[in-house]
Amino acid sequence: MAEGVGGVSYTRALICRKCGQEYSIQPISRCDFCLSPLEVSYDYKAMAKGISREKLAGGPFSMWRYRDMLPVEGKTVDIGTGFTPLVKADNLGREFGLDELYIKNDCLNPTYSFKDRPVSVAVTKAQEFGFDTVACASTGNLAASVAAHAIKANMKAYVFVPSSVESGKLVGIAIYNPTLVTVDGSYDDVNRLCARLVERYNWGFINVNLRPYYAEGSKTLGYEVAEQLGWHAPDCIVAPAASGLMFTRIWKGLDELAMLDLIEPVNTHMYLAQAAGSSPIVNAFQSGTLHVHPVQPDTIAKSIAIGNPADGYYALRVARQSGGGACAITDEEIIAGMKLLAQTEGIFAEATGGVVIGTLRKLAASGVIKRNELTVAFITGAGPRTQDIVSDLVRPFTVQPSLESFEEVLGARV
Amino acid sequence: MTKRQVMFTFPPELIREPIIYTLSHQFKVVTNIRRADVSENKGWVVLELEGEDSEIEHGIAWVISKGVRVDPVVGDIVEG
């Protein structure tokens, strides 16, 4: 246990998720022995003594109210992330025959996606480790978040983007003034380049050498939902999966709350949502295997188009062990889901949100999720960054600037 | 000398081929297997490759040309 600026750290060590080998807290992400991912472990006994519902509820209205449950020691890099609304979705619930449906609207983070949660922790940790530069490879959401946090922390940021990414998407990154690098080549080429850069430069690479810390930020999604439900875990959760990391951490967040006696033992069914054009985890779930075979992504849901998910195996395990499931949604269903969410609940989500809504529709229609089950659907990124995919909706009525013209065109409608 | 941590995913028709043995003999690359799961219809191997940069690059290109998928062990780094 260590006293940090504004809180206490119960961080104990890094531990290999496969073989259990332990490492001190440092910027590494893989076990030296079996090359499996490392995760942060905590002194839960001490944490249980130091944390209570009252203490948490008295914290700031941001993800940092859970600071003592995160692996940080010093001053946090905070751009105002978290404690996003949990909205009762009665209109959408009626469409699906669900009486207790909620939307966790994580579009409402500073850079418009849930990525601000893990990045906030990763950049805080980068600062603690003494890095002066952070880096990432991304097609949008992650890059924007890293660039924004780096500016706040007075750090340099390198952002690598495949050259195929539309230039319009780069505005939301460039505005924070990182060193923006477009790489001529496929996604796989960019992956390979970044793996080399990590070896070469002394940077905090957000989702590589800082990955164990980055991962922990997403636990706050689970914490918040439970707190917002009056310290209860939902019956069912529907959440998207790309690398699978966030999906596993929502579960870990709930599990920790139960371990700390802050909620009852968790009996939440975790349902994982992917786009059919990039569904390696769903494929593995459906074929009953534990190995997630990489695929070549081809979907409009670019922000979850990951063919070789680093945490696929662990996400698969959460879906299975929780008695949940996994579902893949076509591009047409994704667009229908985006439109339905906007036109029932007033929430404009990116394509990933359409994946979640499409999955929810299937699960409700098949009776897997039942009418009275308290269900939370996670909407993790805002729509405007990828609005082109629903541009067919723009069909305005054209009138002359006169009352006569208006009534001629729209009179029957008014 | 550098080290590269990669995952080979074998299609069923290549599972009986001595790809890793041949890699270490045709190229100056030391192969060090850390985890694996191989059965008659699927196979993946997580291993570390050690050697000169150019030897590793050429070796990986040869493995890919044989029909094996090669991915960084860290998974996809590019995220949304």
Descriptive notes:
The complex is a heterodimer of chains A (414) and B (80). Chain A contains 15 helices and 15 strands. Chain A is α/β, with parallel strands linked by helices and 414 residues long. Chain A has two domains: 2-75 and 115-214, Rossmann fold (3-Layer(aba) Sandwich); 86-111 and 218-393, Rossmann fold (3-Layer(aba) Sandwich), CATH 3.40.50.1100. In chain A, the strands form four sheets. Chain A has a six-stranded mixed sheet, with helices on both faces. In chain A, strands 10-9-8-11 form a four-stranded parallel sheet, with helices on both faces. In chain A, helix 9 crosses helix 10 (245-259) and helix 11 (280-287) packs across helix 12 (312-321). Chain A is globular. Chain A starts with a strand and ends with a helix. In chain B, a hairpin with a 4-residue loop joins strand 2 and strand 3. The mean pLDDT of chain B is 92. Chain B has a four-stranded antiparallel sheet with strand order 2-3-1-4. Chain B contains two helices and four strands, in the order E-H-E-E-H-E. Chain B has a single domain (2-72), classed as Alpha-Beta Plaits (2-Layer Sandwich). Chain B is of the alpha+beta class. The interface between A and B is large, with 48 and 23 residues.
